[in-house]
Amino acid sequence: MLAPAGWSSQEGTLARPLQLSGHGLHTGRRVNVRIVPGNADSPRGIVFRRMEGGRVLAELAVSPALWRGQPLCTMLETVDGVRVRTIEHLLASLLTCEIDRATVELDAEEVPILDGSAQPWIEAIHACGRIELPAAKRFIRVLQAVKIVDGEGTRDERSISIEPSSTYEMAVRNELKGFGELRWDGAVTPESFAGQIAPSRSYGRVKWAIPAILAGYVRGMPILRGARLSCTAAIVGNRVLGGMRVPDEFVRHRVLDLVGDMAMAGAPLLGRVNAVRPSHEMNYKLIARLLATRDAWEWAEFTA
């Protein structure tokens, strides 16, 4: 049986190391990132390596087991308190560029936000190139439906579910005052992600951001300290300063975050995700429950 349309049947990694620098969305700190290609002997998946002064603080293999709740981003943390945060855009890019084994070295705790989208990561990965590894690519085939509901029966109800499918699909609905109901429904493939989803930016209302930043300082929790017009689709009233980059940019960015959060499973999914106003926490709860329900999924490999 062939791999799902648009996906390779072989694992891959970067053809050469990738280096990028930028500042964190929440910490505001400058960070240098170096992504080291894997090889046939490397562990499967993506590993974050926290560096400080040239030494290794910790290595964090991407897994829901290391997830920790954090406002407005996805974060992993070791038992010793070493963190990597705002990893979702990079994870989504590595997954959809089919970089299955790699180590991400960074000298601060937050992955740089760059322009607020996944497009710079996609472009940098493509510039490095991809080489195939001898191992067959693995997918997670969903066998049973799993669903998470938050605030059931209230005006603020949110839900997210996954059900069996022969391809990786998503249907995401989001509502934003002044912009109405926004939807995206389609297959998630390397091509569709790069063309339709990756350019969408992080977004927020300016009137909410300023109080959040101040509250973060009071609580000693960095929130949006690095937010700038250069890395955020800033909403004022019913408009976006500078305009939207792609149609329905807000819901497409929800899809971007969702792809990145689902990448914590360690492989592309063969399943259909249906989400209504998803959040990072709900995304985590879905993938954690799916993986914990052992008869709800299986590993799948395909011939070339």
TrEMBL record:
<dbReference type="InterPro" id="IPR011334">
    <property type="entry name" value="UDP-acyl_GlcNac_deAcase_C"/>
</dbReference>
<feature type="binding site">
    <location>
        <position position="253"/>
    </location>
    <ligand>
        <name>Zn(2+)</name>
    </ligand>
</feature>
<protein>
    <recommendedName>
        <fullName>UDP-3-O-acyl-N-acetylglucosamine deacetylase</fullName>
        <ecNumber>3.5.1.108</ecNumber>
    </recommendedName>
</protein>
<dbReference type="InterPro" id="IPR015870">
    <property type="entry name" value="UDP-acyl_N-AcGlcN_deAcase_N"/>
</dbReference>
<comment type="pathway">
    <text>Glycolipid biosynthesis; lipid IV(A) biosynthesis; lipid IV(A) from (3R)-3-hydroxytetradecanoyl-[acyl-carrier-protein] and UDP-N-acetyl-alpha-D-glucosamine: step 2/6.</text>
</comment>
<dbReference type="InterPro" id="IPR004463">
    <property type="entry name" value="UDP-acyl_GlcNac_deAcase"/>
</dbReference>
<keyword id="KW-0479">Metal-binding</keyword>
<feature type="binding site">
    <location>
        <position position="257"/>
    </location>
    <ligand>
        <name>Zn(2+)</name>
    </ligand>
</feature>
<comment type="similarity">
    <text>Belongs to the LpxC family.</text>
</comment>
<keyword id="KW-0378">Hydrolase</keyword>
<keyword id="KW-0862">Zinc</keyword>
<feature type="binding site">
    <location>
        <position position="89"/>
    </location>
    <ligand>
        <name>Zn(2+)</name>
    </ligand>
</feature>
<comment type="function">
    <text>Catalyzes the hydrolysis of UDP-3-O-myristoyl-N-acetylglucosamine to form UDP-3-O-myristoylglucosamine and acetate, the committed step in lipid A biosynthesis.</text>
</comment>
<feature type="active site" description="Proton donor">
    <location>
        <position position="280"/>
    </location>
</feature>
<keyword id="KW-0444">Lipid biosynthesis</keyword>
<keyword id="KW-0443">Lipid metabolism</keyword>
<dbReference type="Pfam" id="PF03331">
    <property type="entry name" value="LpxC"/>
</dbReference>
<keyword id="KW-0441">Lipid A biosynthesis</keyword>
<dbReference type="InterPro" id="IPR020568">
    <property type="entry name" value="Ribosomal_Su5_D2-typ_SF"/>
</dbReference>
